[in-house]
Amino acid sequence: MSTRNIPRPREQRHTTADPPRAGSAGNGAGLARLRTVLRYDLPASLVVFLVAVPLSLGIAAASGAPLLAGLVSAVVGGIVAGLLGGAPLQVTGPAAGLTVIVAGLVAQYGWPATAAITLAAGAVQLVLGLTRVGRAALSLSPAVVHGMLAGIGVVIAMSQLHVVLGGEPQDSVLANLRDLPAQLVGHHDAAVLVGAVTIGLLVVWPRLPRVSAVPAPLVAVSAATAMSVVLSLDVPRVFLPDDPLSGLVFPELPSGPVLGVMVAVFTVAVVASVESLLSAVAVDKKHNGPRADLDRELTAQGVANMTAGALGGLPVTGVIVRSSTNVAAGARTRASTVMHGVWVALFVLFLAGVVRLIPLSALAGVLVVIGVRLVSLAHMRLLWRHRELPVYATTLLGVVFIDLLTGVLLGVVVAVLLALYRLTHATFHAEDRGADGWVLVVRGSLVFLSVGRLVRELRRIPECRRVLLELHVDFMDHAAFDALHDWRMGYERRGGRVDVEEVHDTWYHRATRGNPGNRRSLPNPLPRWFAPWSHWQQRQVEEVPADDHIPLPSADDNPMWRGIHEFERRSAPLVRPFLAELAAKGQQPAQLFITCADSRVVPNLITTSGPGDLFCVRNVGNLVPRADDATDDSVGAAVEYAVGVLEVRTVVVCGHSDCGAMKALLGGGANANSHLAGWLRHAEASLIRFHDDALRPLAKVAPHDLPVLERLCLANVVQQLDNLRTYPGVRMAIDQGRLRLVGMYFDISAARIYLVDADTARLSPIQDVALP
């Protein structure tokens, strides 16, 4: 059939709505945005503000920075990153993930120099964002990121536990572990009570019904502060100057080796960038709004860090805890995160006296819980399932017992080595099948690293046997080919027989002909589940050298036996679970598919269906004898069973191009006394419909008529749909709205499917039909 006569689907274009124009439409959009802000974003911003204040103070305390620096960063992160960011619902501020880094910088360079390093790190982030490498930061293994955060969590928890117990944190985890027993048994002051109350509330509060909507950090710090005031406890408290603006510390150039300063700048920039981008990706999964623009988000984070550093604030990142709170509180736009920054600024300027009442041990208790939660058992289980736990453990231990940068580098090294191992790893499975000989199945990439294991497996095979090497190999280097080919030649010289069968590619056979190829991503052959026997079986014979032999599953060289053998070996294990389920619960197909017996029409292929999906009836010409025709019961029985017992929802009659039955009907080529002639009598109504001048124009598809044979095929489809309506069960199901009839046409040469209009016989490309 000439495909140029069949209409192609119109080109589909995706357009973006124009922005609202000035005038009434623009005013309406503005009012709608205002309502959204007041209804959703304003309440959410208050919730985030209540979470941000205690966390910002606690992170500043743990970093060894002025406490005001934490609040400055909360303001800058909320307003600057909120206005410019590419992730509208992400909340930016000081993060626990940078606490260890900042504490080390403060100890080494002092706070003013640390602010300058923050400013420089922001400039690096700005350059990275403007050069559009935001997504490249996601190339870092998540196992390394989670291991880094877990290590930071351990460091924070161990150091702040000493503050809760009324002592001072040491400069390393080992030192904190060494001094912890003495701290536990030593003298404790009121700080222990404050810290214990804080930790207890943080753990219990989220589990209480109906009150968990109030942020746990706010409740814990407020309760501990109120208790310390009521009981007049003598505990160290937050220090803020009477005039907060006078307490700003501005950046100064750090003194020290230039290389060390550069390493510090890039460390802050990379860690802050990765944490922000991962947080943005995680927040995207929690809402249905616009997706994050990671390059824009990275640019905004750079501007925010430059601003925070210039004002003497802590480095900022996108923070998953505050961002998740923002989404859960119902935020819809970036107005929420901006307003939360405004509330923090107002709180610092006008309620500084309230902040001075907060005990430091309460903030330490908050950080202990945060640190413990950074060591996530859920992440460990997930990484264990993905076999990434060694990367996680290496990073965690490196951060805890050496330093953050070394720990991350060690984690990256382990991740790269693990990836190389997986890329170059091959699996071997040898099996003795008795009289059929040995089978060695090889999967993966065969490179020099796998040669030792390959040779060991080959040497396990006894001499003078028949061996089938089944290679599922996506790459084979010269060393692996040499080892495999040398063993094969030697084995056959000693009286054995080796047959090599390659499934996904032909690395071995091409190498034997001197053309091995040098790329992993070579075109693969057609999958055997839809390629004809003549393709993959003949291809297999052609690609084997003359001295090779193709093993046969039986003495009979019948392609069907080869196909069955292929099914048993490869397809049966995959399909067996589905068939076992169908065998247990019985068939429940939703479609009756009536089509021709033509070998080129494969219903499961053209409908992408599997076992249990289609109840099929196939016959010469896809005919459906009328219900009152007593000469055939087979098709009628199938129709009645499908509609009455299986209760299918759709009956499809599928004709096809170049139909032999329609050729015989047109040419009268069938012997009058043959079974074919008797069967084709059921198609006489189709021939009458075809010759009816009233219907002939309706069988056109603009701009030209289809060939005569194809027009008859279409008329035949329409006639069989009419014949189906002669069955009482079909008519009743249609009247009740639980069954529909569909005409379909398959163009074999173009591998395209069309719907056939039951009234006009016009064709509609399936791409033009909307999915239900």
UniProtKB/TrEMBL annotation:
GO biological process: carbon utilization; transmembrane transport
Gene3D superfamilies in alphabetical order: Carbonic anhydrase (3.40.1050.10), STAS domain (3.30.750.24)
Key words of the record: Lyase, Membrane, Metal-binding, Transmembrane, Transmembrane helix, Zinc
Subcellular location: Membrane
Needed co-factor(s): Zn(2+)
SMART domains from the UniProt entry: Pro_CA
rRNA-binding in keyword set: no
Molecular function per GO: carbonate dehydratase activity; zinc ion binding
Known role: Catalyzes the reversible hydration of carbon dioxide to form bicarbonate.
Domain SLC26A/SulP transporter positions: 38-388
Membrane topology: Multi-pass membrane protein
Main localization, broad class: membrane
PROSITE patterns for the chain: PROK_CO2_ANHYDRASE_1, PROK_CO2_ANHYDRASE_2
Known catalytic reactions: hydrogencarbonate + H(+) = CO2 + H2O
EC number: 4.2.1.1
Protein name in the entry: carbonic anhydrase
Positions of region (Disordered): 1-27
Family listed: Belongs to the beta-class carbonic anhydrase family.
Record Pfam families: Pro_CA, Sulfate_transp
Amino acids binding Zn(2+): 596, 598, 656, 659
Transmembrane annotation, as ranges: 42-61, 67-84, 113-131, 143-165, 185-205, 217-239, 259-283, 341-358, 364-384, 396-421
Cofactor note: Binds 1 zinc ion per subunit.
InterPro entries reported for this sequence: Carbonic_anhydrase, Carbonic_anhydrase_CS, Carbonic_anhydrase_sf, SLC26A/SulP_dom, SLC26A/SulP_fam, STAS_dom_sf
